[in-house]
Design goal:
This protein has 287 residues and is of the alpha+beta class. Helix content is 25%, strand content 34%. A hairpin with a 2-residue loop joins strand 15 and strand 16.
Amino acid sequence: MKFRSFAILAALAAMSAPLAVRAKDDTTPIVLSAVDQTLVDRSIARGDMLYAYDQAAWHGTDDLQEKAKAAGVWDKLAPTLGGWIVDGTAAEPVLVFIDKSDRAQAVYTARFADNGTRLIESKLLGAGDDRSISPARMKLVVALRAARTEVARAQLDVCANAAFNSVVLPPETPDGPTLVYFLTPQTQNGIWPMGGHYLVEVKADSSIGSTRPFTKSCINTGAPPKGSPAAMFITHLLDPVPTEIHVFTMRAARLPLFVATTQNNRLWSIERVGGATRIRAMEMPKK
């Protein structure tokens, strides 16, 4: 079945930032190998979860500040905050802010719908509330703290004049690692960082399993100029298929993203279709 492909207007050899693309309906999608399809499915699952969890953290941070300032406790509370964790499904994530204590007491909780974009209910916790967190959530906190130590030790670079955003994804198998992402935040409207994102895998015993960057340097992608086709393009050197960071960026930008993987000379489309993320591959268009 043919589908809407995109021919690059500028030379792909430039390997540079966002390029305009034009539609051309004459390309048949590549049928992926079982290995590549598994990798693509993983990128979609992780990328959608990253987006939902990051949205919950963003909107929850704003709500926490609003509630704490209204209660007159923000100035006292802020220095005690030790970050946040999110769990639950991508559709309905749950956010918990914790303090810096060894026991990681809960400070604020919030429940979201619509992939973390709509706040359902929230509560700033006080002295009379149960502030303990479950063993499953404590495992996420321990992994986050271990990963932070590793990021500091490895001196990983953030690609903005801002601190990393962190997102912790639970293990995908009972004995699998906890996935801790450190993301360079967006600091300019219409520009999304593609570099400065890292994954630290934390084993069940809290030791570091592996750390990976998703690019070799700082690079951004952005919305095309007004009047151009509404899509983004970037090349990728480190993987044979698009990663969860590409999915996350597409979701955050709300624009289709086209990724050229240099390992196999393929061009991939990443977009939302019918409320679901879809990734498809084609051969690289002729220059």
